[in-house]
Amino acid sequence: MAVKEIMDTLRDAGLSQFVKDIKLIGSTLEIVYGIKEKGVERELEEKTRQALKDMPDVKDIKVRFVEVREEPPAFSQPMFVRRKVEGVRNLIAVGSGKGGVGKSTVAANLAVALAKLGYKVGLLDADMYGPSVPTLLGLKNQRVYVDENNRIIPLEKYGLKVLSIGFLLPSEDTPVIWRGPMLMKALTQFLFDVNWGELDYLILDLPPGTGDVQLTLAQNVQMDGAIIVTTPQDVALADVRKATAMFREVQIPILGVVENMAYFVCPESGNKYYIFGKGKVMEFASQYGTKVLGSIPIDPQVAEDSDKGTPVVESHPESEVAKAFLSIAKLISDITRR
Ligand SMILES: Nc1ncnc2c1ncn2[C@@H]1O[C@H](COP(=O)(O)OP(=O)(O)OP(=O)(O)O)[C@@H](O)[C@H]1O
């Protein structure tokens, strides 16, 4: 992925520590640097242009600066070596600061939407304690098997390769009781000992929050980008700051924020109601040097279709909510395409 190469080059030039956001849109590179004091902008911009001058994918560079307060790091940053998942071009994590904001719904619908755009896509349910992908994709009570090389064969549905801890549990009601190293071992196996084949995108549905699982995964697996899902309420936004800080701390580029349950369209009048407030997610994104990838309305159809095991993008592709998912998928493909 071009952004990854660019980040590596910036790292070699000693610039990656300032990067708050980075996007390659077509051949235009947009970088947001966080600086602690004014006066260094010109030097940083020049160094950036110099470092990237031989990158064929980058024709135009736009550098923006935001002032950052000096805060003690929220997470320690040990030395780690990140492993790449073989055959996967873009590994994208979908995370959230809080539970219940629709992270798994967004992950599943974006995966299906990317597949509809013609990409080869996998969906890995890494939400070990609350796997919802089997329900969302109508794969409850399904089992997985291994191939001759002992690699797990993912299931296939709606054009996706799918894997979830739910496929290994004896029943839906069986809790996962693994902790610490056991859990990490299972997760690592779920990524690396799987016959994914060649994938353009592997979407990783992370558990909510910023616990050990997310941090360890982020430190050990080469991820190409993260998407953060939030709802517009203040309580959700407060936690999204922590998720943003975590991805930044482990230097995973944040592709943007998806605002879920952003508004409700009255079926009778067609009027939009911003039930949880308008503009707060956008404000958050610009404060944190990232962008809103899209806003998904509240639509009872989403919950109904999810419970039936058909993502809304598949069952109601003409609905406003499905179109919102498709437009975000398109944006992701623009940002990440090689
Ligand atoms: N845009 C939407 N409109 C209506 N209902 C939605 C929407 N997005 C999600 N939901 C519903 O909200 C509930 C929570 O969604 P989901 O399970 O995807 O959240 P989550 O953040 O992954 O939760 P968890 O923290 O448990 O992993 C589900 O019932 C889902 O169908």
Automatic annotation (TrEMBL):
Binding locations of ATP: G97, K98, G99, G100, V101, G102, K103, S104
Taxonomic superkingdom: Bacteria
Keywords tagged on the record: ATP-binding, Hydrolase, Iron, Iron-sulfur, Metal-binding, Nucleotide-binding
GO molecular function, one term: ATP hydrolysis activity
Function of the molecule: Binds and transfers iron-sulfur (Fe-S) clusters to target apoproteins. Can hydrolyze ATP.
Subunit structure: Homodimer.
Similarity-based family: Belongs to the Mrp/NBP35 ATP-binding proteins family.
Protein name per Swiss-Prot or TrEMBL: Iron-sulfur cluster carrier protein
Species of provenance: Thermocrinis minervae
